[in-house]
Amino acid sequence: MTTLDDKAKEVSPDVVGDTNQTSSPDNCNCENKGKDSGGFILLFFIIGLAAALVAGWIIFPKLLYSQKKQPIDFNHALHNELVEEGCESCHFFREDGSFSGVPKLAQCIECHEEVQGEDPEEEKFVETYVANENEVPWLVYSRQPDCVFFSHAAHVKAAEMDCTVCHGHIGESTHLKTYEENRISGYSRDIWGKNIAGFKKNTWDRMKMDDCAKCHQKETGSKGACFQCHK
Ligand code: HEC
Ligand code: HEC
Ligand code: HEC
Ligand code: HEC
Ligand code: HEC
Distance, CA 141 to ligand 2 centroid (Å)? Predict the structure, then answer.
């Protein structure tokens, strides 16, 4: 106890002397101290910024989207070679002009009544779905909210647009990608876009209201009335 107090008393005159010295104009200690704390503030700023960026660009999107696997994988490239009418063997327009959308078991059954090959995905497909006559609960990447009306005939038939303009290259893929669902809105990530900041490289990167309207403006000269897309 006493020794510590004594030491403090011994040291204090020196400390006072030091501070007196630093206040003299030809000593640069003060400025150095200022630079040091400035350096620290900058360092903390950079660490904080980096943490915010990591949270915003990496962690937030991961938390925002839940990943769902398709019930079975599907190889488009393989099947395009096997069927006779290309895409239309499975995705076709009915007589009334409506679009068949995702194929039903009926379009698979002629070839998959029994397991054909060694692929475990095919075995799963035949045993779980075909044998029990259960439709496959495919997750639709491009699914719009229920309030939106969309017609494939207007785009594919009337405007002669290619599937890739809106869907990208799913039709030529060998595997189905993971489906990502927005936890807040319940929408597919393909609607709100891959990029959190909204950058868009390809026409199919995002399909929000503005994306539909922008093309309508360009192609038809008008964004269209609300009731065109909302019925
Ligand atoms: C043998 C049947 C078959 C053929 C042929 C086929 N598809 Fe598919 N297609 C499917 C199945 C099954 C799915 C369901 C997977 C899913 O939900 O994405 C699918 C899904 C799709 C989807 C994804 C829809 C979405 O948003 O989820 C697109 C786009 C598509 N097909 C385009 C094409 C194109 C383009 C071709 C021709 C180059 C083609 N398909 C040929 C069976 C087929
Ligand atoms: C024209 C005949 C034909 C039609 C129609 C067809 N398939 Fe196939 N499918 C095959 C053949 C052949 C294989 C390859 C089997 C092997 O060699 O492993 C195959 C493989 C598969 C596989 C395993 C490989 C992969 O894609 O991941 C799955 C799953 C499958 N088919 C699902 C379907 C579904 C679902 C449909 C209907 C939308 C369908 N098939 C329609 C002939 C067909
Ligand atoms: C102008 C953009 C556009 C074009 C071109 C287009 N689609 Fe789509 N497709 C969509 C939208 C938007 C949806 C979602 C519709 C909805 O949820 O009501 C969709 C849905 C689908 C689905 C799932 C449908 C369902 O209800 O199960 C399939 C399969 C599909 N499209 C295949 C195709 C194929 C094959 C082509 C080319 C022949 C094509 N699409 C061309 C925009 C487009
Ligand atoms: C890349 C261009 C493009 C994109 C993207 C697009 N459309 Fe269109 N859409 C067109 C064109 C072109 C027409 C006019 C077709 C015609 O000649 O009748 C059209 C027509 C329509 C019509 C009118 C159909 C009718 O007969 O009344 C509706 C509804 C529509 N689009 C909804 C949508 C929705 C919803 C989306 C977004 C999910 C969308 N479109 C995205 C180009 C596009
Ligand atoms: C070209 C087609 C199109 C037109 C025209 C259009 N919308 Fe939309 N709207 C969409 C699509 C696609 C979505 C879903 C994707 C999204 O949220 O951006 C949507 C979403 C919405 C939503 C959000 C609904 C939800 O559940 O998230 C509202 C509200 C809305 N639209 C109102 C309007 C109003 C008001 C007008 C007229 C000024 C209008 N829309 C015109 C295509 C259209």
Answer: 21
- Nearest-angstrom CA–CA distance, 173 and 176: 7
| Structural tokens at position 8 | 């403090």
The CB of 90 under 6 Å from ligand 4? The reply is: no
Rounded to whole angstroms, how far apart are CA atoms 164 and 99?
16
| Burial of 207 (C-beta count, 10 Å sphere; 0-12/13-18/19+) | buried
Ligand 2 centroid to 32 CA: how many Å? 73
Contacts of 30 (CB under 8 A, 6+ apart): 22, 23
**Probe target for ligand 3 pocket from 107, 167, 203, with the most ligand atoms within 8 Å of CB:** 167
- pLDDT tens-place string over residues 84-113: 999 999 999 999 999 999 999 999 999 999
Q: Is 99 helix (H, G, I), strand (E, B) or coil?
A: strand
Residues in the chain: 231
Could you read off the pLDDT of 134-165 as tens digits, one per residue?
999 999 999 999 999 999 999 999 999 999 99
Question: Where are the domains positioned within the chain?
Answer: 35-66, 69-102+138-229
Q: Give the C-alpha separation, 107 to 100, whole Å.
A: 11
103, 171 contact by CB (below 8 A): no
Residue nearest to atom 24 of ligand 4 (CA): 154
Q: Which of 52, 67, 31 is nearest to 181 (CA)?
A: 67
Instruction: Tell me, in angstroms, the distance from the centre of ligand 1 to residue 1's CA.
Output: 83
Ligand 4 midpoint to CA 185 (Å) = 24
